[in-house]
Design a protein that fits this description.
Layout (H helix, E strand, L loop, with lengths): L5 H15 L8 E9 L2 E9 L4 E2 L5 E9 L4 E5 L3 E6 L3 E3 L3 E5 L7 E6 L5 E7 L8 E8 L6 E3 L4 E7 L7 H26 L1
Antiparallel strand pairs: 1-2, 1-13, 2-4, 3-7, 4-5, 6-9, 7-8, 8-13, 9-10, 10-11, 11-12
Helix pairs in contact: 1-2
Length: 195
């Protein structure tokens, strides 16, 4: 039987490279949101296109959020609301979604049902302006008792990546290449020991 040699290993590596592609596309990341704001909260998820570092508005691809206040709540998602990201204070890693409350004045990260300003929104803002400074959960209208506000400072986590147990194709191909390499090494070791 012919030993598994270098040409065969080259074919395995080439196959893995073809599966992985020249640059594997970023995998979307789903961040779970569970933010307490005064006596209210915002609970749900935000999905990004997988970009990390400073995020742009276009990097947010989907969301499903329950905005809870005192005696009122509102559900919003990408079909019923808009997202607004002013500035450079929203950032992400593979594990966390952040907002820098000590960033540039006027910067904010806002999810709001279309229509008049001041109603049906969740906002994280550096300074008062379109939103109050800090965190805002407004299920109805900002001046109603159901609305909840909390000041905030510094870079804070606003979302945690959901666990994803399914590896992407590039990870599978690299794992298979690693097992093939181990097999080649083991086979060569056994072949040398028998000589």
């Amino acid at each position: 039987m012919k030993p598994f040699g270098l040409p065969s290993l080259s074919l395995v590596v080439l196959g893995c490279a073809l599966v992985a592609g020249p640059e594997a596309a970023a995998t979307p990341i789903v961040y779970e949101v569970n933010q307490t704001i005064g006596a209210g909260s915002v609970v749900g998820s935000i999905t990004t296109d997988g970009a990390t570092g400073v995020l742009a508005q276009s990097d947010v691809t989907a969301w499903s959020l329950d905005i809870n206040g005192v005696g009122a709540s509102m559900h919003i998602d990408q079909t019923s609301s808009i997202v607004t990201d002013y500035g450079n204070d929203v950032s992400a890693t593979a594990q966390y979604l952040y907002f820098n409350f000590s960033g540039t004045d006027g910067d904010l990260f806002l999810f709001q049902v279309g229509g008049p300003a001041g109603q049906n929104y969740w906002c994280n803002a550096v300074s008062s302006g379109e939103c109050f400074q800090g965190k805002s959960a407004v299920p109805v209208y900002y001046s109603y008792a159901s609305s909840q506000f909390a000041s905030a400072e510094g870079k804070q986590i606003i979302g945690v990546a959901a666990a994803n147990g399914v590896p992407e194709p590039a990870a599978w191909s690299l794992m298979l290449a690693g097992f093939a390499g181990l097999g080649v090494m083991l086979r060569r070791r056994v072949a040398r020991a028998s000589i």
